Amino acid sequence: MALTLGIVGGGQLARMMIAPAVELGIDVRVLAEEPGMSAQIAATATGDYRDLETVRAFAQDVDVVTFDHEHVPQHVLRALVAEGIAVHPGPDALQYAQDKLVMRARLAELGMPQPEWAEITDAAGLQAFLDSHGGRAVIKTPRGGYDGKGVRVVSTPEDAADWLADGTPLLVEELVDFTRELAQQVARRPSGQIVTYPVVETVQRGGVCAEVIAPAPHATGRLAEVAAQIGEAISEGLGVTGMLAVELFETADERILVNELAMRPHNSGHWGQDGAITGQFEQHVRAVLDLPLGDPGIRQPWSVMVNILGGPAADTLESRLPAALTAHPSAKVHTYGKAPRPGRKVGHVNAAGDDLDAVVYEARSAAACFGD
Ligand SMILES: Nc1ncnc2c1ncn2[C@@H]1O[C@H](COP(=O)(O)OP(=O)(O)OP(=O)(O)O)[C@@H](O)[C@H]1O
Ligand SMILES: [Mg+2]
Fold first, then answer.
1. Which residues form the domain of 51?
2. Rg (alpha carbons) of the chain, rounded to whole number
3. Cα of 213 from ligand 1 centre, angstroms
4. What spacing in Å lies between the alpha carbon of 327 and ligand 2's midpoint?
5. Which pTM does this prediction carry?
6. Count of the separate structural domains present in the chain
């Protein structure tokens, strides 16, 4: 009988796990938040992932429960595990992706390089941190942030007044003067096998990932080695199963610092669908089902991914598709079946080849076919 993968969350990450699962002969079921979501191309139930009964009923008919996002509450995850249901990544690992304060404290215990940070609960605490860090800092809501929401640069406690008002602890970090952002992906099976992807460069605009270049240009062997070691140490140290993405800052003096973690396929790994021997979506499916992992190596010297964000244009991605495919036959267009609201990630383009400038041009110009 075919293995069945259960994915909680109906977004594009779930959607993109489906095609490689089908190719491996694995059935997929999705628990989506509402009807009509991106991943509804597989058998889909609809319900609230915060409700134990809903998730428990969904989990009955699957071989493993995995996720499109990290927001399933701990008590729900732990109840499933207590009943003997395979949940990957499990609650012990996921807590570090659910709360940035918990993550910072644990990474400190593991000796990982990271920005200076503190937990603050009031204006005095923030002022003290600002005073000892050059008068500017980054504050973050520990839970629920995404695409830069929940991240703010501040120079006075007044800048944080609204977030401090409700008394929940905040994470404050030094404002890192990074030269660029990198991401390191690692896949790990419950039985322990682990593989690392090449470190990539990520470019964010307005707090949202815009482009990714794989491997990271000008990455020395030493940099790539250190990034891979950090990824492996975190995956093993936190007991992560499935894909882990470690977002990193590179500084002018070639230090790398951990920004944050994602325990699922991640935007920084979309390039691998077309540019890696085993892309992250296939790898996540293999890893959570404890199947042997695939080769994470590159197919071409360079891969570039450019996100397609929804704009004010009323027409749909589908109406632009024929022209884009005609003009860019070597680009790979991936669309998510989502309504194109402004700023919303609705698709991406991958390109790959020998010449980085040509690959960047190809990916950007193909993605631009969907812009305004
Ligand atoms: N300490 C810092 N110093 C400088 N810039 C930072 C710092 N922390 C975050 N940033 C910037 O803000 C962006 C978003 O921060 P972070 O990754 O913590 O938030 P997020 O909203 O959870 O992210 P994501 O978009 O990955 O879901 C980072 O990619 C980086 O560009
Ligand atoms: Mg981030």
1. 4-87
2. 20
3. 18
4. 33
5. 0.97
6. 3
